[in-house]
Design brief:
The protein has helices at residues 2-22, 26-37, 44-62, 72-81, 85-105, 107-113, 117-139, 143-157, 164-179, 200-233, 243-257, 269-277, 284-298, 301-308, 313-328, 331-335, 341-353, 356-386; strands at residues 69-70, 265-266. The chain is mainly alpha-helical. It has one domain (2-335). α2 (26-37) runs parallel beside α4 (72-81) and α7 packs across α10 (200-233).
Length: 387
């Protein structure tokens, strides 16, 4: 009897942590997905089914809370350039093939090995700051809602075994449904096609508009930085989250799911930090989220979008801000050599001002300059000591 008393509470505590962690990355997933759905080019059921299947597969493959996120550059191009459904499918399929080739040839491992830790820290800093700024933009002028959500997330997060993200998101949605006007269903989300076969011209358009800007972001944030963050947060299981495996799963998801109306997707360091920050420690959290998204795919589109629209954007912004702080403030910021800190800062600033690809280039060049200066200083010091 004593063993049962000890085991059951531990099981319940673990379930609460995983359920809370499942909601951690909603601040990234929902704004981009709902924005694209508002254009009416993709069917809501297909989009939610794509993310649901990918999340369930990710949880089973990695047994860790590795996130699945919309490809941000692709989503931005859809919103600003008006990509068609065949062009979106061509984008996902092309990126999928490229990632699989990089993994099969081992090129992704060589890229990761040559990337200095100072540059990775700078990318994490920049990505965290970018997520925080995006979170502030979601809060907008409803600062008091965002502030209350932020206080609630931090306060509940201090309570043992409390699924803070789940409580805050569900509570805010319920209060908004009862007392607020709510956002209502997204009127533009009326696409119903479940399968699209791109034409050759769709691949040409997709490559120039969406593939080229997205590929560097995916290689940095979704592959290299995600693997590095997994080693920091959960070193015991980080061997499962290698750069090559992340490239394979991201590539396979896009190649297989994009023709069926899924929004192009990848893993992400911010998503991993978000799920971990709010309690997830295994693949159960992302399997739970995947199952919820699959349930949404089976519901009528108006009902699904109407339900999701009850979640106030400032609450999603607060989720992102908490996550952004965890991502940006890595142990390497404090452990780094003094000579490495300018490299970290430069890579971080370039990532915020431009994008992770420019941040990567700026960090890499500055790291090469730093190493040259250090070698020159050591050589000069050795020469002076010899004299």
């Amino acid at each position: 009897m004593r063993e049962t008393v000890n085991i059951v509470p531990a099981t319940v505590r673990a379930a609460c942590r995983e359920a809370g962690g499942a909601c951690g990355d909603l601040g990234t997933l929902l704004p981009y997905a709902l924005g694209v759905l508002a254009t009416g080019v993709l069917a809501p059921a297909a989009v939610f089914a794509g993310f649901g299947l990918a999340y369930v597969a990710t949880g089973l493959i990695y047994a860790m809370p590795v996130a699945v996120q919309p490809m941000k550059a692709v989503a931005a191009v859809v919103l600003t350039q008006g990509l068609t459904a065949p062009e979106i499918a061509a984008t996902g399929m092309t990126l999928g093939v490229l990632l699989l080739v990089l993994a099969a040839t081992g090129a992704i491992d060589r890229i990761a090995r040559f990337l200095p830790q100072s540059v990775i820290s700078g990318l994490q800093l920049g990505l965290g700051l970018s997520l925080g700024l995006f979170g502030l933009s979601l809060i907008g002028d409803q600062w008091w809602v965002g502030a209350l959500a932020l206080v609630a997330l931090i306060g509940l997060g201090r309570l043992p075994h409390c699924p803070a993200a789940l409580v805050v998101v569900a509570g805010a949605a319920g209060l908004n449904a009862v007392f607020g006007a709510g956002s209502g269903p997204i009127e533009g989300a009326d696409a119903t096609a479940w399968f699209t076969l791109p034409e050759p011209s769709d691949f040409v358009t997709a490559f120039g508009l969406a593939v080229l800007p997205q590929l560097p972001l995916t290689l940095t944030n979704a592959v290299i930085v995600t693997a590095a963050l997994a080693r920091d947060l959960m070193p015991a299981g980080a061997h499962r989250v290698s750069e090559r495996r992340l490239a394979v799963t991201s590539g396979a998801f896009n190649l297989l799911l994009a023709p069926f109306g899924a929004l192009p997707m990848c893993h992400g360091a911010g998503g991993l930090a978000a799920h971990h920050r709010f309690g997830a420690r295994s693949g159960a959290a992302v399997v739970i989220l995947g199952a919820i998204l699959l349930a949404f795919a089976l519901m009528p589109a108006s009902a699904t979008l109407g339900l999701l629209a009850q979640i106030p954007m400032p609450v999603l912004g607060a989720l992102l801000i908490v996550t952004a702080a965890d991502l940006a403030i890595s142990p390497r910021l404090f452990d780094a050599k003094p000579s490495c800190r300018p490299v970290i800062l430069l890579a971080g600033v370039a990532t915020v001002v431009w994008n992770p690809a420019i941040g990567l280039a700026a960090g890499w060049v500055s790291e090469l300059i730093r190493q040259r200066i250090v070698r020159s200083t050591l050589a000069r010091s050795s020469a002076e000591n010899a004299d």
